[in-house]
Amino acid sequence: MSTYRVGVIGTGRIASSIQDEMLSKPSFVILPHSHAGAYSAIPETTIVAAADTNAERLAEFANRWDVANTYSDYREMLQAEALDIVSICTPTPSHAEIAEAVGASGVKGVFMEKPVAQSLGQVDRVIAAFEATGVKTVINHTRTFDPYYRRIKEVIASGVIGDLHAFMVHWHEGFLFGSTHLFDLLRYLTDSDADWVFGDIVEGESLFDPGGIGTIRFKNGVDALINVRPGHAAPLEVDIVGTTGRIRIGGSLFPELYSKDATTGELVKRGFPGAVWGVSAMTTAVLELIASIESGAKPASDVYDGRAAVELSVAFHLSSKAHAPVALPITDTDFEIQDPWGRK
Ligand SMILES: NC(=O)c1ccc[n+]([C@@H]2O[C@H](COP(=O)([O-])OP(=O)(O)OC[C@H]3O[C@@H](n4cnc5c(N)ncnc54)[C@H](O)[C@@H]3O)[C@@H](O)[C@H]2O)c1
Q: Are residues 286 and 248 both part of a single domain?
């Protein structure tokens, strides 16, 4: 069995402490649910070093996850540690610059936080940095690796709801920070890329990652009707509508399945076939990164999927400004959305 030397850059919430929050949340999350938690659960990976500009958070992280070497400057860590895998868990505005240093350092794989960056131009810097040295990537679009949502994909594919027609979506964050989770999940569930977007950014909200409403038309003809807004009471709710049935899913809901009665044609609530393997999303993400390093297998969400998710965020903004549908691919690589998340 290979052993991978891991370094973590940014030792805050998603790197470590977010899984403590899960204990008091009404949800179906399978632990571990942090970068460090996932590495600690996998025998093939050992966190040998961590870097953070905040000394207190760094010390707390090293103590909790038993990490030998700590650095206030991630560049020193990259030089000193001969790492195989690096997690990039810093606030989004720093991702492109850090990715360039990580790519040049000779690592084999990167587990990177979403959104990859705040503009398509920044995402392209990240991609160029990783392609230059053949670095494999996984982006932490957590739901795409989650057994709960993987089961939903299987049930759609089983044909029980007929031909997939539409997703009706509520989400409680803005078009960039949280909605890249959503966009990646929808692309995964439909197995299709977006064709065009028609959106309206809600006026009067902060310029930092506002929400709004709109439509995504996928190339396979499936539509997604999007209602996203910071502060919404629905953390994530999706009504998946097909020709012979519906599945209703949500962050804290057990999935509901409805399908037409063969004789009457009436929609009837069914028991949901919900058995899943108990492997956490973030553990699966790391295992898919290792598989990608070892065999070239494509992870469910890599940096190219990360680009597609940011492209959809930008498309909603551009459509809203133009008051018109916007066809993909988006050519404006400078348009930048501010991700409000993260601390120094
Ligand atoms: N996948 C998810 O569900 C999820 C959830 C939360 C956050 N995120 C993403 O994770 C990233 C971090 O968010 P967070 O909530 O963990 O933030 P956080 O503020 O809790 O942690 C970020 C850490 O990075 C450190 N840092 C900042 N600049 C640095 C630098 N140049 N070098 C080294 N360390 C630096 C900060 O001191 C801090 O400790 C963001 O991109 C965010 O969008 C993803």
A: no
Domain range for 186 is: 147-270
Tokens found for residue 162:
């007929």
Q: Contact, 238 vs 167, CB < 8 A?
A: yes
Instruction: Name which of 307, 282, 294, 302 is nearest 108 in CA terms.
Output: 294
Are 48 and 84 in the same domain? Answer: yes
Pocket lining: 313 vs ligand 1, CB cutoff 6 Å: no
100 and 174 share a domain?
A: no
Number of structural domains, the chain?
2
Q: Is 198 in the pocket of ligand 1 (CB under 6 A)?
A: no
Ligand 1 atom at shortest distance from the alpha carbon of 98:
31
In testing the pocket of ligand 1, which one of 11, 86, 113 has its CB within 8 Å of the most ligand atoms?
A: 113
Residue 334 is encoded by which pair of tokens? 């400078």
Tell me, yes or no, whether 157 and 288 share the same domain. no
What CATH code is carried by the domain that includes residue 177?
3.30.360.10
139 lines ligand 1 (CB under 6 A): no
- Pocket of ligand 1 contains residue 93 by CB under 6 Å: no
* Segments of the chain scoring below 70 in pLDDT: 1-2, 203-207
pLDDT one-digit tens code per residue, 83-108:
999 999 999 999 999 999 999 999 99
Q: Is residue 316 one of the residues assigned to a domain?
A: no
* Cβ 92 under 6 angstroms from ligand 1: yes
Q: Which residue has the tokens 């956490």?
A: 280
Mutate to test the pocket of ligand 1, among 22, 29, 34, 52 (most ligand atoms within 8 A of CB): 52
> What is the whole-number distance in angstroms between the Cα of residue 14 and the centre of ligand 1?
6
Residue 21 CA to chain centroid, in angstroms?
18
Q: Are residues 77 and 52 in the same domain?
A: yes
Beta carbon of 299 within 6 Å of any ligand 1 atom: no
**61 and 137 assigned to the same domain:** yes
The single residue listed with the structure tokens 């999007």 is 226
Q: 340: burial class by Cβ within 10 Å (0-12, 13-18, 19+)?
A: middle
> Per residue in 184-228, pLDDT tens?
999 999 999 999 999 999 865 566 788 999 999 999 999 999 999
